[in-house]
Each structure stands twice: as C-alpha cells, then as structure tokens.
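Annotated sample (chain length 226).
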Amino acid sequence: MTPSARPGVLFDVDGTLLDTNYLHVLAWWQAFRDTGHTDVSMADCHRSIGIASAELVGHLLGDDVPGTDEVVEAHSRRYEALRDQVVAFPRVAELLSACEERGLAVVLATSGAESDLEWMQPAIGAGDAVAGATTSADVTSAKPAPDLLQTAAADHGLDPARTVAVGDTVWDVRSAKDAGLPCIAVTCGGIGRGELVEAGADEVYADPADLLAHLDDSLLGRVARG
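Output written by the structure step:
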C-alpha cells in the first residue's frame, strides 16, 4: 500500500442510497413503449436496473437492434418527470457520516451521468462526509463492467485491499467481484437476498439503516479497524 492509499467505501446510488429503482423501472417501461418496443415488461426492466443506460437497452433488445439512443433519450425524458419524487432511504446521511467518522473515504460510484450528481448529492445529504464521486462519464465501460469501481478507487487514492463496494443489484455485485473488491449488498432495491448471495455478495442487509445498525460488525467496520 502506498503512503497515500486509504481505506474506503464505494457506494452505488440508485436503489442503494436513493429509493429510485421503481421510478427507473416505470421510466424505462414507458420509454420502451414510447419507441415501439411494447414486448418489454416491467419485470424485464426491473431485473436490468443497475446496468448503464445504453447497455441496458442492448441487454433487453439485443445489441443489433437500432435505436438505442432513442430509447435512452425517451427514458431521460420520462425519468425527469418523476425526479421530484426521489427520496433517500432512511438514515442514509447518518450511514455516510458514520463511515467517514471511522476513517473510511466515502465515494459515490454511479452509472448515472455526471450532471445527475447536481441533484443526487443534495438528496443523499451528508455532503461533508463524501470524498468524491465517479460517474459513467469517467469510464469507457460502466457497470456491470468493473471499470467504474476500479476507476473510483484509483482516482480517490483508495487501497483496493481495504475498500468495500456497496450496491443493490446482481450487476453491482458482479462488478465488485470482477474489480477484486468485497461487496455488501442491500435488498431495498428489490432484489432478494438469495440472488445477491448467489451473485457473490459477502454480506447482505435490508437497507442503509440496517447496515448502519450493524456497521461495526460489518465488513466496513472491520476494514475501518484495519
């Protein structure tokens, strides 16, 4: 470990810190219908949340189907109309502050656009506890590729051996595993414990409040103690 490297935690945002997954499901379902893809169900959309936008469209329609940009733009329009309903999960700000107080560098790692941080961070709260953020704008391949987490750790001077990823989807877990990072998963995004464990999650909690209640006994607590 270099002298500047530090322990840290990489938090996914949608479905992990912000209660947005089902808003995204609705927006994606509407976007597919807006663009003529009426065979895509809400269940299909839900199980794809966590994949970056262009990759999500390819995942559901096939990479050879034209019009990816049209669907992504339709989702952006639909989601914009829902954004005023976004709230953080209970005790999110307390969790981030508690991690920072224990010596962990708190970094947001989201497949969302850089511009999304302008409204995401105030919704999350605990701005003083957040060391920085990495978005899809910082990488060529976003989740489920490991690039986002690897870049977030490197750009913020984190020691990979003492960094934990926290997310809510199987895509988050797979990304963490491929990045060589341990992963804590939460079920508040709508994916069950069994699937998250099968994907490789090291620990699973119900939501940020549950993780906060068990913080010192969790992977994060152990990493913070060295």
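Annotation: The radius of gyration is 17 Å.
Annotation: Residues 29 and 42 are 6 Å apart (CA to CA).
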